[in-house]
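EI: anyone free to look at a 143-residue chain?
SC: sure, send it
EI:
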Amino acid sequence: MKKILCTLALGFAAAAVYAQATPAGLWKTVDDETKAEKSHVRISESGGVLTGRIEKLLDPARQESVCDKCSDARKDQKVLGMTIVEGVKKNADEPYWDSGTILDPNNGKTYKVRMTPKDGGKALEVRGYIGPFYRNQQWIRVE
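SC: here you go
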């Protein structure tokens, strides 16, 4: 009986960890080059598709910044509140989400994106890429 209860407890614990290992939530972004904390991005899920929006800029001097280098409808729009992640879906065969895009408001470029939860959902590896060229950032879960 103890063995069965222990197996059930482990199963529920594994299910809880898996349920938390999703990109949905609030994330602190960290610059991959300078290691400076930059913003909070809220990733939301609707109908199996993830979107992410900048909810907070951590540098007080950047509160009014705009995406002057963007070339789409976001051109000259405020970065605070801007949607930067769009169309991301769970890859059924892999432990990551992809198929969408991510915008870097600093340079106005849009990249394909792959998001992989790490450390039981406490961290998120965000990879922006064009072809074989990519850049990774490690985001930290706030909530």
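EI: The chain is about 15% helix and 50% strand.
SC: 👍
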